[in-house]
Design brief:
The protein is α/β, with parallel strands linked by helices and 121 residues long. It contains 2 helices and 3 strands; from the N terminus they run E-H-E-H-E.
């Protein structure tokens, strides 16, 4: 992957749309968009970054999910369904991973020093 290009894995519910539980799939077509989400995500896409949504929605919700994203004019390359529910995620990989916690507002990303968990050497 070229320098400066990121793979963004972005949650949907509570991050780009209002939080809709899997038990209420009929709401997936009418849920509100999080203000600023589309603008920032589409900017990253236009800059050449890779945009994948990584969601706890189930594969059976694909049609609703893709329809909502298209109707809201989000730009993206793909969606990964079936992310485990419940939070407290630990992503273990042999590649560089940056975790960004979403607190309800999309803005430019800034670099900060934070405490992280690593494997002992």
């Amino acid at each position: 992957m070229p320098d400066g290009i990121n793979n963004f894995l972005i949650d949907i519910d509570g991050t780009v749309s209002e939080d809709v539980p899997n038990e209420e799939p009929e709401r997936m077509l009418t849920c509100a968009e999080i203000p600023g989400a589309k603008d920032q995500i589409n900017k990253w896409y236009d800059e050449g970054h890779i945009i994948y949504f990584f969601t706890s929605r189930l594969e059976e919700h694909r049609a609703y999910t893709e329809q909502w994203l298209h109707e809201k004019d989000f730009k993206w390359q793909g969606i990964i369904f079936g992310k485990p529910r419940g939070g407290n995620y630990h992503w273990i990989d042999d590649r560089s991973v940056r975790a960004t916690r979403f607190f309800g507002k999309f803005t430019e990303l800034v670099e900060r020093d934070k405490k992280i968990w690593v494997f002992e050497e």
